[in-house]
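Customer ticket, subject: "Can you confirm the structure for Ser/Thr-rich protein T10 in DGCR region?"

Message body: Hello, I'm evaluating your service for our small team and ran a test protein. I'd like someone to confirm that this is what the system normally returns, since I don't have a reference to compare against.
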Amino acid sequence: MCILFLHTDNNPAPNKFRLILASNRDEYYQRPTRQANFWDEDPTVIGGRDLEPGKEGGSWLALSSHGRIGVILNVTGENTQDPSSSTGRGFIVPNFVTNKQHEMQEEYLVRLSKDGHKHSPFNFISIDISMKQINVQQYSNAYGCKDHAENVASGPRGWGNSILGHPFRKVTAGTSHFKEIVEAYGTMKDKDILVQELLSLLKWDKSHFPDPELQRRLLGKTPSVVERTSSVFVTIPEHGYGTRTHSIILINRQGEVDFMEWTMKEPIDPQNPTWISAKYTCQLESC
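Agent reply: Thanks for trying us out. I re-ran your input and got the following:
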């Protein structure tokens, strides 16, 4: 389970941000991960990396100074459309942000949609930033979703691990809270307060239960597990699973980027975790 909140503005006031992103990564505590950093094979990219044997190098969220951001969220409770050829989702984000094939955003998404049936179910949010506009598109290969990417309007939006158009209650509630935070503190002068408020949102452990969509997708799980999954911040220590990484990205009108990450230090003790933080700055070359 993961969650993503995103606000974009193609024509913000001089003191406001063009992009505000806040995201949680929920994963098994034992899964080895590299903290967000500039990538060795492409120093224009910042993001965390999967180190699980056989999946090394995958990523769930990454940003390129060329003006691309990719975020992937698994879709819970869906069967793979083609189990015989199912492949991992971990390189969908790296392939987009590194852009080794020199594809336009639309070209990449068309190619991805043609092979979508080969992957385990996912929601992919692609962001392409130029001097004139921020183009956000969403694509899901899950059953019931369109077979092509869709444009996402400016303003605050939220995504989780359900199919597009059927959000969990925590996504709806979180997006509403996210909108309030952006409206109250989304200015350069309030940046420190904005970051703290976003971090508090990502650590929000309020239960949003019952949730019929979540219960349907976690059919077979105990009521206790389902309820603890209904919060923005998830912690299920007896299953070795929960929220282990927070990410915040801010981009101003001049294309200056703040990429911040807070992640549990490995080996993770879910009862008493040690959080380590990192902050990276860069200038978008597309702005």
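A couple of notes from the result: The longest strand covers residues 17-28. Residues 169-185 form the longest helix (17 residues). Feel free to reply with more questions.
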